[in-house]
Amino acid sequence: MCLRVSDHxxxxxxxxxxxxxxxxxxxxxxxxxxxxxxxxxISNNIIINRYTVKRNEPRGLFCGIGQCTDCAMIVDGRPNxxxxxxxxxxxxxxxxxxxxxxKVSKVD
Length: 108
Fold this sequence. Notes:
With 108 residues, this protein is mainly beta.
C-alpha cells in the first residue's frame, strides 16, 4: 500500500520516479529520490521521529512545513534536521533523535 499522492490538484503529477535506498534506525527502506524524508518514513509506517527532553514523549508529523521541530531527526550524523522539508538522497542514514541534539545509542 502506497500512501503517497501521485496526482495533486495544486502540485500536479508526482515526478519523483527514481527509487533509492535509505537507512532508518538500522533498517533499509526504499524511498523516492527528492521526496521529503518524512513522506518516505510515513509511507514505510514510521511515525515517530524524536523523543522530547523532559518527558521522553514521542513526536512526529505536526506542521509539515518546517516551522516546528516535531519531525527533527539525526540525518547523516547531523541532529535537529527537519525531515518534513529535507529531500531524500541515496544512502542517507536517518536516526530517531532523543532529546535536543544528542543521540542515545541503542544497547543490543
